[in-house]
Structure formats: structure tokens, C-alpha cells
Design a protein that fits this description.
The protein is built from ten helices and 20 strands. Strands 3, 7, 8, 9, 10, 19 and 20 form a seven-stranded mixed β-sheet that branches. Strands 13-12-11-14-16-18 form a six-stranded parallel β-sheet, sandwiched between helices. Helix 4 packs across helix 5. This is Zinc-binding dehydrogenase. Keywords: NADP, Oxidoreductase.
């Protein structure tokens, strides 16, 4: 390898201890020598996504965060509520690397022509353990960023863009024609709006605050419903009747929202029903839970007949299901629209050490809209 590449580098790791303490630290790890078909990436940008926070912070009580250590090697700790510890049994005592995706410069490459062709290029990857200074990856799994695209611009080109496209793909494959999305003012929600507007697909956005509704309307969203408004159910039913949406993707997970969506779908369908059925409409209504922003149990009150379903949905199992060819088509669209449809926006950029400050954790930990953070491990 290049002699300027260090033999060890820092990697952010999350550890759940048996006494109920979460510990996040920066640990020195060997910098790998890439194999014949691999490249070594100096990571320059990696986002803190909600899916990353689930592993990084787990169910820790953020009000108990304490930071010790040094400025260069901080150690953040927090208490995990006793009721949440049974769910952590499988990871007790394991120091786990974090970070789903990111981008950076290829600084070393294996002997294969495919690997050598990436030397000196800026690439994006999704492979886990991205919260570190270096990451070795197979050359075949690297997405070469278009000329003039920075690592920061390409850092989030997998999880959110592919999720937005895969939601639309799921809708089409399951025979629906329009969809509903909750927590819709997020980076992902904004991308989904752009996709649906460009592709002429009806989209109903559900948000929790008036300012989030205003944000989406400013981006051209036609149907935006604020769940905090007293007229929410009536407005949601109107939007569902206008779009014909019968599939929803719910990021909140808990509480009553999934059931409310199904109830309003049934009400919208019944506006044009020709005859009464005690079993409800025959149109299948589907809600997929893909997040857990609301940690309460999911509550369903069955007021919408028998043709309905609630289930879980995750990006990577869906991509495995549709196969390599279909997945590559989605990735190609992301690359082509990286600076338009799939542009990401960040509220802050922090270093590895900066991500462990109490202030930073308090900022990104609650997963609030507008609080997306980019990490630059090369800082």
C-alpha cells in the first residue's frame, strides 16, 4: 500500500454492557490491505441516518449521556432502561461498528483491473462500518460518483434514495397506484416527493407539525395532512379519495396512526361504493411499518372491513427480493439524479470525535426533521 496510509486508524464503535450501560468510543483498528478485487477507501463523508442511530444509540436514555476521555478520543456513555435490556441480549459485550453508507477517495487498490480502475476515484458504498477513517470494499460494490461530485454530495446516495425508489417499486409490484408516507418532511420524504412529482404518482404526505406541512407545500407537494390538526382525519380521507392511495409506508411505527390510515382509506373507498358489504370494501389496503419513531405499541382498531394488512418493510430484503438487475436499474437512476432528485441536505458536519460530543448526540439522537448530520472521518 501507499506508505502515507497509516497501519491503524480510528473506528467508531457501540457497545452495550451487561450492567445496562451504552458506551460509544473511537477504537484503533488495523487498516486493511485490499485483496485483489478490493479497494481501500479513505472515508470523507458518511451520514447519520435513523437506521444508523438504532445501532449507534440503541434504546439509551439520551438524558443520561455523559462524555469522558479526551478531545481526540471521547467516550460517550448513557443508561439503557431496564425494560429495554431484554431486547439487547444478542449484542451484550459486542463492540459493534456503525455506519451503513458513505463516500470517499480510493487510496489503494488490489491487482485486478476492476480495482485498479478505481484508484484515485471518489466512490460511494454501502457496506456497514462506515464510521471510520478507512474502509475496504469489493470494487464491484462501489458506485463511482460522476465527475465534479464531492464525497459529501454522494454520501447519502444509497439508503434514502433507494428507499424512496423501492417504496414506489413496491407500490407498483403490489398493484397499487398511489401511496401514503408518514414523517414526510424528512430528507427521505422530500426525495419521495420529488420522485412522485417527476413520475406522475399520487402521494399523500402525513406530517406532525404545521411548519413541516409548509415545507412540503413549498416543494410542490399537493396533498399534505398534519396529524396534529383537529381536521386531520377528514383531510386525510379527502386526500386518499383524490389520489386513490391504498398503500402506506409508516415511519412512526407505534401509536394509532397506522390504524387511522386504514380507516381513512376505507372511508375514501366507500365514497364510490355501489353496494353495502358487512365485510367492508374488497379493495386491499396495506400499511407497511418501516420505522419506530413512536415507541408505543402499534394500536389497530378494526373499523375498515377485512381486506387489509399491516406488516414490516425494510429496504435490503426488498432489494434481495427483486434481484440484481432491478436493483442496478434503481442505482443507475440514483447516480443520474444525484444532484437533483436525490440531493441531500445536512444541518451539521462533524468529525468522528465531534459526533460523540454531548451537544451533537442531543442534536441528532431524537431524529428530528431538519437535524440530519454528516460525519467527515477525515477531519
Amino acid at each position: 500500500m501507499n506508505p502515507s496510509i497509516p497501519t491503524t486508524a480510528l473506528q467508531l464503535r457501540s457497545l452495550v454492557q451487561a450492567d445496562g450501560t451504552l458506551q460509544i468510543s473511537l477504537e484503533p483498528t488495523p487498516v486493511p490491505t485490499p485483496g485483489p478485487e478490493e479497494v481501500l477507501i479513505q472515508v470523507q463523508a458518511t451520514p447519520i441516518n435513523p437506521s444508523d442511530i438504532g445501532l449507534l444509540l440503541g434504546p439509551a436514555d439520551l438524558s443520561t449521556v455523559q462524555v469522558t476521555g479526551t478531545a481526540e478520543r471521547p467516550v460517550a456513555t448513557a443508561r439503557i432502561p431496564e425494560r429495554a435490556m431484554p431486547g439487547m441480549a444478542a449484542r451484550l459485550g459486542q463492540s459493534m461498528p456503525v455506519g451503513n453508507e458513505g463516500a470517499g477517495l480510493v487510496v489503494a487498490a488490489g491487482a485486478s483491473p476492476a480495482a485498479q480502475a478505481l484508484l484515485g476515484r471518489t466512490v460511494a458504498v454501502i457496506g456497514g462500518a462506515m464510521y471510520g477513517q478507512y474502509r475496504a470494499m469489493p470494487a464491484a460494490q462501489c458506485l463511482v460518483l460522476p465527475t465534479g461530485t464531492t464525497a459529501a454530495e454522494g454520501a447519502s446516495c444509497f439508503v434514502n434514495p433507494l428507499t424512496a425508489l423501492s417504496m414506489v417499486e413496491t407500490m407498483k409490484r403490489e398493484g397499487h397506484t398511489a401511496l401514503v408516507h408518514t414523517a414526510a418532511a424528512s430528507n427521505l420524504g422530500q426525495m419521495l416527493n420529488k420522485v412522485c412529482q417527476k413520475d406522475g404518482i399520487g402521494l399523500v404526505n402525513i406530517v406532525r407539525k404545521p411548519e413541516q406541512a409548509a415545507l412540503l407545500r413549498g416543494l410542490g407537494a399537493q396533498h399534505v395532512c398534519d396529524s396534529s390538526a383537529p381536521t386531520f382525519m377528514a383531510e386525510l380521507t379527502d386526500a386518499l379519495a383524490a389520489t386513490g392511495a391504498t398503500i402506506a409506508f409508516d415511519a412512526t411505527g407505534g401509536g394509532t396512526l397506522a390504524g387511522q390510515i386504514l380507516q381513512c382509506m376505507e372511508a375514501a373507498i366507500n365514497r364510490t361504493a355501489k353496494e353495502y358489504s358487512r365485510y367492508g370494501s374488497a379493495v386491499h389496503k396495506q400499511v407497511y411499518l418501516y420505522g419506530h419513531l413512536d415507541t408505543r405499541p402499534t394500536e389497530i382498531q378494526r373499523t375498515f372491513g377485512m381486506a387489509w394488512g399491516v406488516g414490516g418493510w425494510l429496504l435490503f430484503p426488498f432489494l434481495q427480493k427483486i434481484g440484481d438487475e432491478a436493483t442496478q436499474a434503481l442505482r443507475a437512476r440514483v447516480a443520474a439524479e444525484l444532484k437533483t432528485t436525490f440531493a441531500s441536505h445536512y444541518a451539521r458536519t462533524v468529525s468522528l470525535a465531534g459526533a460523540l460530543s454531548a451537544d451533537a448526540i442531543a442534536f441528532y439522537g431524537p431524529r428530528n426533521t431538519g437535524a440530519k448530520v454528516l460525519m467527515d472521518p477525515s477531519m
